[in-house]
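User: Thanks for the earlier help. One more: Helix-turn-helix transcriptional regulator. Can you show the sequence and predicted structure together?

Assistant: Of course, both are below.
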Amino acid sequence: MAHEGSEETIGKRLARYRKLAGFSAHELAERAGLTRSVIANIENNRRTDITVSEVIALSQALDVPPLVLMLPVDRPFSHHVVGKWAYSVGKLTQMFRGASSSMSTGASARATAVLRTAVSLYGADARVDTIRQKIVDTARAWGFGDRLPEIASALDSGESFGWRVGLDLREAVARRDETRAVEIDEMFRDHDAAVANYLSLALALQELTGEKQPDPRSTKGLLPSIEDAQPERTHADGEHQAAP
């Protein structure tokens, strides 16, 4: 991949970001699972046939987007020649993100749809995980650690709002702070909406690719300590100990 007006290479970009990260070549090699000689050869431009796997490993080790190694993204109007085509860096960046396609062929339309749906699905999955963890943390904080299995069942149903355990949690919180009690309702509603959004995107991606996607309605892995959860201490009147 050549570009106009500069001799910058992926090797130079790698060296620059490595130094910005504060790593020696040896440290980067260890973090990326590559050899020291591979790093040296890339940075010194003795090796230009860098594989996709290597770019991903290096970007992960440096904690930078792969594109910043592949392209001079700080100069979006510079041009690269790829085969018989010449593209600006900005255009190439959009192409990698699926944000620039003429949809002129069946392949381009499908590929763009798959990429956009897959990215949205990944984001939807992360949102489900975030909300679930927030619910679990809140339940523990308000003395409901012994009822995590019930919460897991509620979340697994995909329709957790209205379950007895959620209502009990809300009531316990309301005795201390009605405003925060409303937040309990919102958490369960947000969870159910996030699951519904995930399932819609998963179905859309399955229709595009024929690949069945994982069902998010499983707390396996999220609540690893449920089986070992000890009953929370209670007041003399039997009420759960509320969070301070």
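User: Great, one quick takeaway?

Assistant: The chain has two domains: 2-97, 106-209.
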